[in-house]
Amino acid sequence: MSGKPQAEEDERLLRVRKKTATTVIRVVLGVVFVFSALVKLNDPLGLTFKIEEYLSAFGLGIELPRFLVVDAAGTLITLELILGAVLLMGRFKVFALWTLLALDGVFTALTFYSAVTGAVPDCGCFGDAIHLSPWASFAKNIVILALVVQLIVWQRFIKPALGFRTSMSIVALLFAFSIGIIYYVLRYEPLVDLRPYAVGTDIPRAMELPQGKDAPVFENVWTYRVDGREKRFSDQQEPWNIPGAEFVSRDTRLVSGKLPSITGFSATDRDGIDRTDSLLALEHVYLVTCFDMEASRAERWETIFRYMAARDTPVVVLADTDRGEAVERLAIPYPIYFTDPVTLKTILRSNPGVVELKRGVVVSKRSCFELKNED
């Protein structure tokens, strides 16, 4: 007779363990998704650029209007925030779990492709707060996928922590909060600047290579076609000395140490002369950054012209091009230097915007909307 009570007790303990594990997994996933959403909410344009990067990596050369990609980024951020919140509340579990399964399935496939091809070096999962390598991001998504599947299997153990009306009120508030923050940040730049060019950054110092144990060590990976097949070689193997070998490509990768926090800053005039050092040595200068000259609006440039007219300080434009119809149309009266558009997007999200430098140190950063308010 004692066997039956013991079996019932074992079954009860198993249910308790499953319920506890379900609660732990639910809370962990909820916190992860809320944190991820809040980080991206701080900089929705950063996610927009990342989506465009993935589209380009997949060979989708469709020129989508920027507002559509921005809307997609805002929708994804808001959805991620609400899904994390309802997980924490234990509400709407069917919707939350199956939506998370679908989303994470897509993210897992994307990060696997990125890891294999190296097309996108940083997934952007946590914005500029935490940078993950493609393989680390893929591993993270696999873990999340497994946890979501486990929650689906154990969803009967998920019990609401709050009432229905309270939960709906929180969801509505989070939706309004997300849309409001996105609208504000798109006009006035991220609330917390986590990028390498934050106010107070000494750009020349940030470009210096680390020394000592953090000094970077690089190695070349050579790809040569030998006997009709592409093979990879190191410097020591000297593939250029192999009879009949045909050069294909060369990649340089970091073996150990660290890279400078700023690696891509440069300014080249239309004659091909590098003006970076002289620009950073100026006592005081305003940099007008524009990562997409063709898409920049004339009224925004007029705001900048009015702002600069009241200041007796040199002005230089850093843009993705120093010539073309857009440059002629806008009639920009300042010197224009070419800078890589990825670097320009990192410096300032506004297109165009203004960065104030004093001997290479970032003193202030302003979007066009901020300048308009200061007129």
Automatic annotation (TrEMBL):
The chain crosses the membrane at residues 21-39, 67-88, 95-115, 135-154, 166-186. InterPro entries: Methylamine_util_MauE (IPR009908). GO terms for cellular component: membrane. The keyword Iron does not apply. Its main location: membrane. It comes from Candidatus Merdimorpha stercoravium. GO terms for biological process: methylamine metabolic process. This is DoxX family protein. It holds the Pfam family MauE. It comes from the Bacteria. Keywords: Membrane, Transmembrane, Transmembrane helix. It is a multi-pass membrane protein. Residues 19-150 form the Methylamine utilisation protein MauE domain. It is found in: Membrane.
